[in-house]
Structure formats: C-alpha cells, structure tokens
Amino acid sequence: MSRVRTRRRHLNLRFVALCLAAVFALAGLGIWLWASRGLPGEDVAVPDYVQQDFLTVNPWSRPGTPLEKIDGVVIHYVGNPNTTAQANRNYFESLSSGEEGTYASSHFIVGLEGEVLQCIPLTEIAYASNIRNADTVAIEVCHPDETGAFSDASYRRTVELTAWLCREFGLDPMEDVIRHYDVTGKICPRYYVDHPEAWESFLADVASAV
Ligand SMILES: [Zn+2]
Hints:
Blueprint: H1 2-35, E1 50-52, E2 72-77, H2 85-94, E3 108-110, E4 116-118, E5 136-141, H3 152-169, H4 173-176, E6 177-179, H5 180-184, H6 190-194, H7 196-209
Parallel strand pairs: 1-4, 2-5, 2-6, 3-5
Antiparallel strand pairs: 3-4
The structure holds zinc ion.
C-alpha cells in the first residue's frame, strides 16, 4: 500500500519536472524567436529611381539605430529653396564632423527633377521627425522657392515614393502619411501647412497611386 503511494508521488514529481522543462523550453524558444526577428525594412528592394548614397555612420546624422517598426511616412521640405538633392545629402554628411552640433537627416531626399537619393537604409532611424524617428520613414523634398511648393517633377515622385512605401509596409495613406507639422507643429513642409487643401489632395494622390 505505502509502496504504491510512494511510486505515485514519484510519478507526480516526474510529471511536474517534465512540465517545468517544457515551460522553460518554450520560453527559450520564444526569446530566441524574438531576438532573431527581422526588421521590417530588411530585404526590401527600393525602386529603380532611387539612388542609394548612404551617409557615413556617425552620431549626428546616421546613428545606426535599428528602425524596429515602420508605422508611418513623414513628409518634410528642405527649407532651402532651389537646392539639389545632392547638396542636401552633402549637408547631412557634413554634420558628421559634429562642428555644427546639429542632428539631422532623412531616409530619402526627392530632388527638383524628381531624382531620389537614399541617405539612410530602411533598417535604421533617421534624425528628422523628433519622437516619430523611432517608427517612421522620412522623406525630404526639394522646392524651387520660398513658398515651399514642390516642383511638378518632385511632387509626382514624392507621390510615387510614398505610395510605394505604403504598399511595402502596409500603411494607410490617409492615416499613416503625415507632415512634420503633425508631429511637432513645425511649419514643415511649409506649402502643405499653409495650404491644408493642397495636403489633402497630396494624400488623395498617394491613395490613388497605392
Ligand atoms: Zn521637417
């Protein structure tokens, strides 16, 4: 009688030990899967019209911080009329010396002729959109004059690039495409803050391109 009871107790202990081992194994598997999960911007092939010209990794404009999630696209204007995409890319690169003490960059710069330079890989954050740096892709757009209105070529290209990002990362143009202004109240991109109806039609153009 007592021997049977002892054996049963042993069986119970063995069962508990097996359960604990299973729990630890599952937890370990979970941690391993979490640690080895890819970034959303990994293995993404950019469109042909994008020329990759990445900045040097540096604390001021390309910190190399992983972009863990992509929940939106933030549109900016360069704020420096009639400058080229290349000039703005060189400016971001020049910040790497630290002499200016300025943190700034962008994933993409759309030029006046519709050319696109990519300065930061989609797996890393840019310094463009303040608290939304951690979960958005930034596009800076060149403009011919002080109004900040995009040229026809840069407008069309920005629509195309934004629509591509929406498709690639499953974003809703009407919800997830925002202005820098919508993050901090900064007057950026100027023309599309001064003319909210122009911003609405930009979003509608992106939505129909998606
Ligand atoms: Zn901005």
